[in-house]
């Protein structure tokens, strides 16, 4: 080794140095990354790290107002479950309810107030946002031009809704509307005509023997699907004899798929069908005036109207007889009530229920004694609202959690009308289609961060209320609707802050509940209220099932059917040119579009088709064969009001002369999960309305379809949807 | 004729030496890192001494780590809890003044974890405390440590050996500890 | 005991009967409406990834529980049937034998386990499973901030190259056992453990419990005359019993 020269020496040293460096690095890399142990500064009461806390509140993913329990750990919401004590959902919860976490932690939430400046949104403080808005409104108010302030809101129930109404009243503008796309206008109007009760009754599915539904998808989307699902489970296997269900609808809904019998009447003929059944039932009816009804229904004998209905007279007789002999219950909803004759269909169903003895009976229709009348504006009123925006020269338009640009067809005229309003404010959790046109966006809490209260509508046959409380701290710099209303009234000044003296929605809510408590409990005081308030918060609900559920005493108005046309409804477009009736339906996952920004729901297969991500057009396989259409062919669907393109899906549960499409997709804004995905069927709907309510007749548009020649593969879960002899669904006959 | 391997390697002698030096360097590097830059006793934002608290003053472990017997997580005391004593005690010391600063700013103290198990491990403190284990069995004689130092690696053999020795029911089933 | 003896012992169906629990489930197809609430409940509880539109198209979705649809007949007599398919926790599970690293095995509670940090991603088990309920992580999926805040801390977030499947919500079972021990009970009460899917089901189609407890609701339903096991003929001895849908007319 004596011959080490300078070069070798440097090589050895170099190797040693590189080795040492590598060794140091290796040892370092094998260490764990630094994990921190961050304590609370001041721990909340009863906080234990590693132990989950559950908070009860109310779901607002649809209008059913189910009670929910939210599991939180270390201050973050982890899981939403149904509140087992709540009489609406009794522990169950639907897919949309579970996905509420996706709204709370959505990356596309509006995080701070945004002000449009030079064509771009700038983040501003709440102080500045409310000052800016308050200044504009109060200056219009001083100039006696308050009618140039317009307010459009999503339906707001409970006491926060009352606070909003009071605020608008104090403000003095008469241009104010609330709306909900799914508002059951036809049921309420028909119940007013039939029973003098413009409310939603309780349908006691659990105790009925034969449930006949005219288009009402009570297991999927109709009114209170979780409650009815609970009832359905009981009807099937939870009692000593199994109830049967029959579904009449042109396109098989989730409820139709589960029904013992599914029949597809001609679109729009459901009123005739219900009258034909009523005709049969009246022959054996036990109600006092059955004879008179039998006479007035004589024109609707099944044999006379069966052809118009498209169902065999024998079948109608059989279903009607089963309805009459057991505890029958008839429901209507979906496309049956979405024609131009929706109210007539519901009146016919009311007659059927009445003659079957279902009104006020266990297992029948029970009117809630405290059911609220609807505040929701109809489509006709909304069109008028949009028209007024220009006519009265609206200066400030406030959109409260409302998205009319997406929700309503073009013909309502909202996007053009909003464009022309000088200052548009949108109060919303997300930048949806309407908010994207706003000059000022005020970020709204999600329902998991805000105080409010709710009573379910439809009720459950007895009085029930819940308080909705925040389950986590606000994720972003947002405020609740109540807080925004109170903050704004303080900015507007004048008598508003005196009339609305509360500093927060929570304080207001406690005040209202205290007043109600003291009124109901003669011996109550503020101290006992505190106990009561806490017990309601911890139970999530107040209101106990009485020994017997009676409900309001109602009887059928003998002239309910006079002047009513029970014939097939009208359609827009000629039958020769537009051979198909177009039926958009509320999607189980997306509803009418509010939950389209949930990645979980986007990835959850549609229950009937197993399709995820995007829209599709359902048509009968026979129709498809005739037109040479395969699954995934891009179709152009044209109505007199517009066209859209979407891929075809061959659906065995639909009439050959009907095509259907799910609502909820086709957003052009609304965050990364919803934007530019699928199409909304709403955009090609005609502006036909129900003649009695002005509600949009969503199932009254005729369309033609043609292949574009392009293909768009549907993404779906299902492979082969036939058992092919495999005993997957149970052993074949011979077994049990 | 004999063939010497060493002779055959003669031309590679230099390369071998370079390799040896490299290897030696590697060992030195690893040694230097683990000896002088160990993460067993990380430098904490406040030089908190368990020796003073748990040792000299004999404060029970679960006075501060209050949830060890009832929760999966033993819990680290809130800043409020520290201040409960240190509003009055030893307020003039620089380390306590650091604490007071955190408290005045309403900031949490970013302690660095000394004992940590990976995310895929379910480790409930309460099961172990209720089984009668002393804190020291895993955490070492913390009451004598001025700076807390990790004495056991908390790797799987450490857990399984003890489970085997104590004949823990289903103590070797994967789903007892892995989640 | 030699390895061979051990192997024979632990391959025998029902060997765990002498232990405390044999978790099982019944699914009443007459109650099930196919509404998919359970699917979302499972996604939420078990940190199932959001794979994205393109991965879904390539059939890389991960759904520990899925609803399958089977049509009978054609219009106008078309009938749609739903059946929820999840890991059947087979007593004689075909997926367990081929795993080269023992990442999946049968434990003393009658559960077919999946140990993520042992799994090396050969995907053999998925090939052997006749129910196709094993799912592979083709990527390490990310949650767009702040969506990661909803992740359940009681369940590992899986990474690329790992197989996963329904665990009967092992974290909930473990939690219930912990509570039982805290309260000095030997056994978990019937109904105390409800996997996320069972909890969410609005029609109460799913019932979960301990088959070793003859008084448990699940044990009674297990003997229902409508009961059958899917692909029973393959001798997998599933722990999930389905109750056949009743066919009726008015």
The secondary-structure element order of chain C is HEHHEEHEEHHEHEE
What is the global morphology of chain C?
globular
Distance between the termini of chain C: 62 Å
Kindly name the structural category of chain A.
alpha/beta
Query: Uncertain runs of chain C with pLDDT below 50, 5 residues or more?
Result: none
List keywords for this structure.
heterotrimer; C: alpha+beta; two-stranded antiparallel ribbon; 8 strands; 21% helix
Summarize the structure.
Chain A is an alpha/beta fold and 736 residues long.
Q: Secondary-structure blueprint of this entry?
A:
The complex is a heterotrimer of chains A (736), B (179) and C (250).
Chain A: H1 6-29, E1 36-37, E2 53-58, E3 67-73, E4 76-82, H2 95-98, H3 100-104, E5 114-117, E6 120-123, H4 126-142, E7 149-154, H5 158-171, E8 176-179, H6 185-195, E9 202-203, E10 210-214, H7 225-237, E11 244-248, H8 254-258, E12 261-263, H9 270-284, H10 290-296, H11 302-309, H12 313-325, E13 328-332, H13 342-355, E14 365-366, H14 379-391, E15 396-400, H15 404-407, H16 414-419, E16 423-428, E17 440-443, E18 452-454, E19 466-468, H17 481-492, H18 496-499, H19 505-520, H20 526-539, E20 580-585, H21 599-602, E21 611-612, E22 617-619, H22 621-627, E23 633-639, E24 642-650, E25 658-662, E26 701-711, E27 715-716
Parallel strand pairs in A: 7-8, 7-15, 10-11, 10-13, 11-12, 15-16, 16-17, 20-25, 22-24
Antiparallel strand pairs in A: 2-3, 3-4, 5-6, 5-17, 9-14, 18-19, 20-26, 21-27, 23-24, 23-26
Helix pairs in contact in A: 4-17, 5-17, 6-13, 9-10, 9-11, 9-12, 9-13, 11-12
Chain B: H1 5-9, H2 13-36, H3 50-56, H4 61-64, H5 79-86, H6 94-104, E1 111-112, H7 125-130, H8 136-139, H9 156-165, H10 174-177
Helix pairs in contact in B: 5-6
Chain C: H1 3-11, E1 23-28, H2 37-45, H3 53-57, E2 66-72, E3 79-85, H4 124-128, E4 135-136, E5 163-164, H5 170-182, H6 196-200, E6 206-210, H7 217-222, E7 227-228, E8 240-243
Parallel strand pairs in C: 1-8
Antiparallel strand pairs in C: 1-6, 2-3, 4-5, 7-8
């Amino acid at each position: 080794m004596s011959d080490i020269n300078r070069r070798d020496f440097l090589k050895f040293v170099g190797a040693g140095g590189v080795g040492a460096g590598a060794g140091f690095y290796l040892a370092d890399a094998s260490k764990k990354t630094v994990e921190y142990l961050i304590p609370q500064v001041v721990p909340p009461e009863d906080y234990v790290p590693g132990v989950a806390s559950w908070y009860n509140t109310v779901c607002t993913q649809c209008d059913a107002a189910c009670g929910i329990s939210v599991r939180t750990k270390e201050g973050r919401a982890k899981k939403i479950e149904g509140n087992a004590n709540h009489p609406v959902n009794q522990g169950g919860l639907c897919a949309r309810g579970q996905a509420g976490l996706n709204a709370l932690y959505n990356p596309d939430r509006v995080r701070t107030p945004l002000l449009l400046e030079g064509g771009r949104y700038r983040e501003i403080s709440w102080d500045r946002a409310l000052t800016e808005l308050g200044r504009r409104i109060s200056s219009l108010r001083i100039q006696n031009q308050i009618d140039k302030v317009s307010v459009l809101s999503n339906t707001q129930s409970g006491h926060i809704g009352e606070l909003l109404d009071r605020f608008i009243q104090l403000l003095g503008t008469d241009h104010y509307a609330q709306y909900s796309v799914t508002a059951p206008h036809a049921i309420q109007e028909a119940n007013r005509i039939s029973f003098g009760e413009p409310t939603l009754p309780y349908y006691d599915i659990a105790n009925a023997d034969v449930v006949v539904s005219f288009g009402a998808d009570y297991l999927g989307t109709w009114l209170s699907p979780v409650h009815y699902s609970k009832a359905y489970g009981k009807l099937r296997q939870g009692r000593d004899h199994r109830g049967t269900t029959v579904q009449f609808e042109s396109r098989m809904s989730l409820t139709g798929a589960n029904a013992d019998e599914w029949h597809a009447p001609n679109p729009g003929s459901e009123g005739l069908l219900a009258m034909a059944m009523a005709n049969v039932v009246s022959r054996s009816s036990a109600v006092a005036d059955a004879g008179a009804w039998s006479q007035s229904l004589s024109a609707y004998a099944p044999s006379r109207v069966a052809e118009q209905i498209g169902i065999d007279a024998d079948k109608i007789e059989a279903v009607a007889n089963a309805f009459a002999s057991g505890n029958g219950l008839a429901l209507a909803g979906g496309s049956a009530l979405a024609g131009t004759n929706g109210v007539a269909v519901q009146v016919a169903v009311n007659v059927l229920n009445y003659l079957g003895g279902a009104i006020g009976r266990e297992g029948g229709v029970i009117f809630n004694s405290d059911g609220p009348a609807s505040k929701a504006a109809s489509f006709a009123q909304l069109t008028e609202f949009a028209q007024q925006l220009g006519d009265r020269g609206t200066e400030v338009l406030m959109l409260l959690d409302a998205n009319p640009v997406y929700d309503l067809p073009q013909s309502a005229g909202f996007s053009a009308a909003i464009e022309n309003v000088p200052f548009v404010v949108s109060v919303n959790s997300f930048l949806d289609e309407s908010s994207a046109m706003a000059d000022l966006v005020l970020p709204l809490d999600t329902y998991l961060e805000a105080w409010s209260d709710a009573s379910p509508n439809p009720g459950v046959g007895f009085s029930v209320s819940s308080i909705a409380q925040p389950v986590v701290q606000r994720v972003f710099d947002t405020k609740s609707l109540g807080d925004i209303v109170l903050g704004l009234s303080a900015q507007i000044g004048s008598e508003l802050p005196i009339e609305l003296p509360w500093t927060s929605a929570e304080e207001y809510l406690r005040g209202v509940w205290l007043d109600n408590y003291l009124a109901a409990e003669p011996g109550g005081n503020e101290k006992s209220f505190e106990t009561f308030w806490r017990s309601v918060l911890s139970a999530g609900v107040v209101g106990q099932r009485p020994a017997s559920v009676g409900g309001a005493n109602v009887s059928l108005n003998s002239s309910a059917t006079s002047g009513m046309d029970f014939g097939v409804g009208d359609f827009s477009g000629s039958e020769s040119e537009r051979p198909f009736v177009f039926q958009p339906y509320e999607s189980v996952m997306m509803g009418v579009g509010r939950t389209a920004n949930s990645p979980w729901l986007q990835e959850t297969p549609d229950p009937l088709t197993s399709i995820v991500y995007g829209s599709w057009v359902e048509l009968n396989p026979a129709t498809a064969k005739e037109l040479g259409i395969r699954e995934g062919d891009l179709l152009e669907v044209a109505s007199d009001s517009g066209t859209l393109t979407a891929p075809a899906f061959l659906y065995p549960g639909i009439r050959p002369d009907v095509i259907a499409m799910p609502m909820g997709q086709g957003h052009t804004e609304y965050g990364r999960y919803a934007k530019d995905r699928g199409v909304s069927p709403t955009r090609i709907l005609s502006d036909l309305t129900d003649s009695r309510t002005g509600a949009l007749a969503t199932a009254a548009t005729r369309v033609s379809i043609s292949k574009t020649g392009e293909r768009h593969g549907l993404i779906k879960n299902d492979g082969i949807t036939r058992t092919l002899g495999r005993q997957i669904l149970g052993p074949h006959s011979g077994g049990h | 004729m004999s063939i010497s391997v060493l002779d055959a390697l003669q031309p590679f002698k230099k390369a071998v030496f370079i390799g040896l030096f490299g290897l030696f360097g590697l060992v030195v590097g690893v040694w230097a890192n683990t000896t002088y830059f160990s993460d067993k006793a990380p430098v904490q934002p406040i030089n908190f001494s368990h020796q003073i608290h748990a040792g000299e003053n004999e404060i029970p472990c679960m006075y501060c780590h209050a949830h060890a017997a009832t929760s999966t997580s033993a819990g680290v005391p809130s800043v409020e809890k520290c201040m409960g004593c240190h509003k009055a005690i030893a307020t003039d010391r620089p380390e306590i003044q650091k604490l007071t600063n955190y408290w005045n700013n309403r900031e949490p103290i970013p302690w660095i974890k000394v004992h940590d198990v990976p995310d895929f491990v379910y480790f409930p403190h309460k099961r172990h405390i209720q089984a009668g284990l002393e804190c020291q069995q895993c955490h070492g004689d913390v009451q004598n440590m001025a700076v807390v130092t990790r004495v056991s690696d908390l790797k799987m053999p450490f857990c399984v050996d003890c489970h085997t020795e104590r004949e823990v029911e289903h103590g070797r089933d994967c789903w007892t500890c892995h989640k | 005991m030699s390895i061979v003896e051990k192997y024979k012992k632990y391959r025998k169906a029902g060997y765990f009967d002498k232990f405390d629990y044999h978790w099982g489930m019944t699914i009443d197809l007459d109650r099930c409406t196919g509404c998919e609430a359970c699917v979302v409940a499972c996604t939420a509880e078990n940190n199932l990834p959001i794979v994205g539109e393109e991965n879904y198209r390539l059939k890389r979705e991960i759904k520990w529980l899925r609803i399958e649809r089977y049509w009978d007949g054609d219009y106008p007599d078309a009938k749609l049937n739903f059946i929820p398919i999840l890991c059947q926790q087979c007593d004689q599970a075909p997926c367990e034998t081929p795993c080269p690293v023992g990442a999946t095995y049968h434990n003393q509670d009658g559960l077919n386990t999946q140990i993520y940090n042992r799994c090396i991603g050969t995907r053999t088990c998925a090939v052997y499973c006749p129910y196709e309920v094993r799912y592979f992580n083709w990527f390490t999926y990310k949650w767009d901030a702040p969506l990661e805040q909803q992740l359940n801390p009681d369940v590992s977030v899986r990474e690329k190259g790992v197989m996963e499947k329904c665990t009967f919500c092992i974290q909930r079972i473990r939690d219930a056992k912990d509570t039982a021990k805290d309260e000095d009970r030997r056994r978990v009460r019937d109904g105390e453990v409800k996997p996320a899917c069972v909890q969410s089901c609005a029609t109460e189609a799913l019932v979960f419990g301990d088959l070793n407890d003859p008084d448990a609701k699940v044990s009674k339903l297990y003997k229902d005359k409508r009961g059958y096991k899917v692909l029973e003929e393959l001798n997998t001895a599933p722990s999930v019993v389905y109750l056949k849908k009743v066919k009726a007319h008015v």
